[in-house]
């Protein structure tokens, strides 16, 4: 949709255009500067590849994502209207320098920020999220400290600190009493970690501390022996000045708590490391290799997939049908005569099965429309869409719940008033599209 510059509904009826829309994805609209449409039922919004985006008026929703907006430097205002927001995802916004406060999003469960390399500030106080926030992922940024008030988030279960360019110290971990996974990775300037606080994370199951090449401070006493629930540990890649594993880590390996619980250990070396500590022999619970998946259904499923002839629709239909069924019922499908055809045209039979098993009568009606074209006729997507719109468009689209339009290079307009039941809407790669009217 390279030509779309503005999306708004004239007459002030923006909240009536898509009254049932729950999911909206807008991608690669490089000239789109403004979105001023209200979606009263919206739950999930994704904006991706919006190089010219300057403002939007979109209130509410449970999931909000911004991706690949290369020119975006600031997000205006705070997320005041997002009182039901559960997931906020901001990725690949290379010039984004700050993120407004999310402290009013008291239902926020996950905050995921990645590859915003100029990000130096997250405003606001995370104390208001202490009962809701469960997962925080921040990677590839210039943050120099954990967000203010994060230590009060006693509900937090996962914390990922990856490639923070200016991070020097990590403090106040002890209050994160529900933390089950902690990953500290690739923070080149990190010198010290709150080891005393880390030892109090009694529910920690997986811990990763690696490739922090300035990390040199470790206590002499045991660092992790009190982590009685720890099952997986990835560690190493410390300061190039260290010639041996720090004593605090070595002492942890022979602590009774850790030696009896740790099942997986990955050690990453560094230039001056001369040897692996012999205390690893105390880790008697370590398992060699991953879990093996063995199931009779796997081989049957592979054979059914081959019979689907590469048609994802049929595979999806059969997959939904067989979900939760026993092996005997899988065998019935595999050996069924429905795969056989009298004229030997297997492709036609598979296509017919795809059509017959469609759950939506509306979709069947749309596909049946293709029968008006003669055999071997090249059907242009744009022409077919326009025919759908012209013939019984109101009846067809008034029942439509999910619509995705991709790579329709000549499509210039889409009437949006007839989609009264639309729940999910995606547009991608429609370079000539200029109007959503």
Automatic annotation (TrEMBL):
The keyword Hydrolase does not apply. One of its GO terms (biological process) is defense response. InterPro entries: Apaf_helical, LRR_dom_sf, P-loop_NTPase, WH-like_DNA-bd_sf. Keywords: Plant defense. One of its GO terms (molecular function) is ADP binding. It comes from the Eukaryota. This is Uncharacterized protein. It comes from Salix viminalis.
